[in-house]
Amino acid sequence: MAEHSKNTQTLRRLVLTSLLLAIVVIGLGAYTRLTHAGLGCPDWPTCYGLIDVPETSAQISTAEKAFPQRPVEPAKAWNEMIHRYFAGSLGLLIAVIALFSIKLRFSKSSKVRYPIFLPLCILCIVIFQAALGMWTVTLKLMPIVVMGHLLGGFTTLSLLFLLYLRIKGKGINAQGANLVNGQLKKYSNYALLGITILTTQIALGGWTSSNYAAMSCVELPICQGDWLSNLSFEQSFDLIPPAKESYEFGYLAHNERVTIHVTHRLGAIITGVFLAWLAIMVFLKARTHSIKNAAIVLMTLLVIQISLGVSNIWFSLPLKVAVAHNLVAACLMLSLITLAYKLRKNSEESLYE
Amino acid sequence: MSKAMNKTIAPMPSTINAGHHHFSISHIFSNWRAYYDITKPKVVALLVLTALVGMSLSVPGGLPWQLLLPAMLGIALLSSAAAAINHIVDEKIDTVMGRTHNRPLPEGRISVTNAIIFATSIALLGFIILYALVNPLTALLTLGGLVGYSFVYTMYLKRATPQNITIGGLAGAIPPLLGWTAMTNEVAPNALLLVLIIFTWTPPHFWALAIHRKNDYAKVNIPMLPVTHGVSFTKTQILLYTVLLFVVCLLPYLVGMSNWLYLLGACSLNLIFIGYAWQLKFHAKEETAMATFKFSIVHLMLLFIILLFDHYWLPMG
To answer: Of A46, B79, B82, B206, which one has the fewest beta carbons inside 10 Å?
Structure first.
């Protein structure tokens, strides 16, 4: 028993560490994108052929000879390389978690049935993330790759969080009754719908950022001027762009960027209204503090996130606010996952019970 | 003291019941979730899937929608009614059991009378649809399944013998036959083979859940096998039944009803099922019983989906 709880504790600490690291990596990723440092290193996985950044004048002249199309900017190169090293550490940590989960699952002494599918799934995603990270560089910031890299990062974080919730819940309440009363049951499905809506909105945000459309609308609430007649959906959401030398600073025309930006704003209205409704309804119907608290956290993060979005426009995309808008989106997703997890139903159903 | 308590408690039931005394369409609409829940929608979906496979395998090529739609609808309605009757009959024990006390009936979201009216109506509707639009044989067999499940199993067998689900399992195993007769209007041996698969699958499927809920069943005096003969014996039975199921699942290939794709799928699924049963018997962890139960559902669902794919991709001459 002592050994089992020690194993659970070790696993829980590993997952918690990787969770915090994943948030840092997501923040660094947003910072890299927003400081235009995505192509700070024109090669992958090395940076101008080095394992760190060229800084001495000798190194810089060798680097520029090897990559004449991209002059060295050490500050940007550092942003990119720091993101890569943190992401690499996260990948290794996740590999350790996966191996440890396999060991625990097949150990005869462990009394608990540890999750194994989820850690392996996270490992696969993080490996694919590495590939997407490579393609952001080799395909010169193609929007679909950049957005995919963002969503891959969010997926890694969300699944790590789910793993954390599941490990934390082990042993507790395994035999107990369902905490969710009949009235709350239906909100379980609405929470899942909320996750879908929020995922779409995050993808739209990633699309706005990777197409450099964040400053295409500078007025509140929707856009400046006669934006409605400027909308053109034809090429704005084409997933595969025409071949270009580089996609840095975007390749779409102004009205297409306006379309993307407006879609993200309208998405924000839908997401905001739905999540606010969900949080309020769950808060009113819940009978346990744990669920009420989850609803309060969701509501708080939602208010913060919308304020950050408005600030992005009001103050013309300050770096700190833009990075925070990305990080709070991640936290919003985690709080929604918490709520959905707490509302989940015991779905076992049999004809013969 | 008791008088005071009576006073405070007395108004409660009347307020709860006030909304439920009359059965009306508007009550169903405002309370649809509760009515939906008592039909065991997930189980019904699985039953309808097995019926659909029965229909597909009964004839080569496509199915006429004029038969397909009413047959599926009728079978779904009668199965839902059967599940609702099960909820009505078990209302008292559900109130006591930890896992089921928040079902619609014990929680008072719908009254017993309304549930009975609801179950009777959809059963009648389903029977009429089958009788008029499909054929009388299917209608009668489906009704037989309902009677076998709701009355013979739930009211009698469940409370009478630890072999309750072994015998009662026949009622839940019948949908492939219903699908088959809906198309051909006769009881074919191959249809009985599909019934046999579900019949053999039922004991290991349900006993895994019964182990998980052993204390609940003991509390309400339901003689499920783990309660009467112990968990260890039940686990041995589960393991033996999964081996038997492996053999039974080979039959559709051996009699030439299905092709190598089915053989491959059935072997893999049954080996995994045996793996779960083995782990449950010899290296059980906290949630192995529940995991086995959940896998059993995936097992049956995939097995029938593979039957379907096999039938249309690799048709047997």
So the answer is: A46
Query: In sequence order, what are the beta bridge partners of A47?
Result: A50
Q: Which residues in chain B have their CB less than 8 angstroms from residue A182's CB?
A: 34, 102, 104, 107, 109
pLDDT of residue A86: 97
Report yes or no: A1 at the B interface, CB cutoff 8 Å.
Answer: no
Interface check A111 vs B, CB under 8 A: yes
Percent of chain A with pLDDT over 90: 63
Of the candidates A324, A277, A279, A272, the residue with the CA atom closest to the CA atom of residue A297? A279
Q: Which of A73, A80, A234, A353 is catalytic?
A: A80
With CA atoms as reference, the chain B residue closest to A348 would be: B294
Of B101, B104, B294, the CB nearest to A177: B101
Convert the pLDDT of each residue in B115-173 to its tens digit: 999 999 999 999 999 999 999 999 999 999 999 999 999 999 999 999 999 999 999 99
Contact B172 A352 (CB under 8 A): yes
> Does A353 contact chain B (CB < 8 Å)?
yes
Q: Quick one: B214 and B279 in the same domain?
A: yes
pTM recorded for the entire structure: 0.78
Say which residues have a Cβ less than 8 Å from residue B72's Cβ, sequence separation at least 6: B48, B51, B52
| B29: closest CA of chain A, how far (Å) | 15
Check whether residue A120 and residue A149 sit in a common domain. Answer: yes
Looking at residue A347, its pLDDT comes to 62
What whole-number distance in Å separates Cα of residue B311 and Cα of residue B71? 20
Establish if A172 touches chain B: CB-CB under 8 angstroms: no
Does A37 have pLDDT greater than 80? yes
Any B CB within 8 A of A13 CB = no
- Dihedral-angle region of residue A291 (phi above 0 means left; psi in -120 to 50 means alpha; beta otherwise): alpha
Helix (H) or strand (E) holding A303: helix A289-314
Q: Dig out the tokens for A26 from the structure.
A: 């997501």
A–B CB contacts, 8 A cutoff, strictly below: 70
pLDDT digits (tens, 9 = 90+) for B2-33: 444 444 444 444 344 444 446 677 777 778 88
ipTM of the complex as predicted? 0.74
- Domain count for chain B, please give it: 2
Looking at B186, B216, B239, the residue that finishes a domain is B186
Q: Which domain holds residue B173?
A: 31-186
Is A256 annotated in the active site? Answer: no
